[in-house]
């Protein structure tokens, strides 16, 4: 999961975001489509992690170390879901508008 997320962020930082900073181009939909598909994959991996950790709920009687681990999993879940939401529903949604679609064509 770490490798997938690092690869994803590398593509964002080195391909997508520089493309968006320069105003995009007709091909911007390709990296956006890839990012959205990867978001789906990340969500599936996150779901597996949450299944394995009983939705980031530490076992009864867990020591402080285990509680901290599960707390970290919960924070990771929240951060990843926020990241995906902001990109899919805020950033990418702006680029999906009819005006932007016409400008790219």
Question: What does this molecule look like?
Answer:
It is a single chain. By secondary structure, this protein is mostly helical. The chain has one domain. The chain is 79% helix and 0% strand. It has four helices and no strands. The chain has helices at residues 2-21, 29-52, 64-95, 98-104. Helix 1 (2-21) packs antiparallel against helix 2.
Topology, please?
Elements (H helix, E strand, L loop, with lengths): L1 H20 L7 H24 L11 H32 L2 H7 L1
Helix pairs in contact: 1-2, 2-3
Overall average pLDDT: 90
Helix-strand category: mainly alpha
The total beta strand count reads 0
How far is it from the N-terminal to the C-terminal residue, by CA? 36 Å
Instruction: Count every helix, treating DSSP H or I runs of 4 or more residues as helices.
Output: 4
Q: What amount of the residues lies in strands?
A: under 5%
Keywords:
mainly alpha, 4 helices, elongated, disordered C terminus
Summed up:
The chain is mostly helical. It contains 4 helices and no strands. It has one domain (2-23, 36-104).
């Amino acid at each position: 999961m770490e490798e997938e997320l690092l690869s994803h962020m590398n593509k964002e930082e080195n391909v997508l975001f520089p493309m968006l900073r320069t105003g995009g181009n007709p091909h911007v939909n390709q990296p956006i489509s890839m990012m959205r598909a990867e978001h789906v994959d990340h969500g599936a991996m996150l779901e597996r992690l949450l299944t394995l950790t009983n939705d980031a709920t530490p076992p009864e009687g867990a020591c402080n170390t285990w509680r901290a681990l599960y707390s970290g999993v919960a924070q990771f879940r929240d951060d990843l879901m926020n990241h995906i939401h902001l990109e899919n529903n805020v950033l990418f949604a702006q680029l999906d508008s009819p005006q932007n679609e016409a400008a790219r064509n």
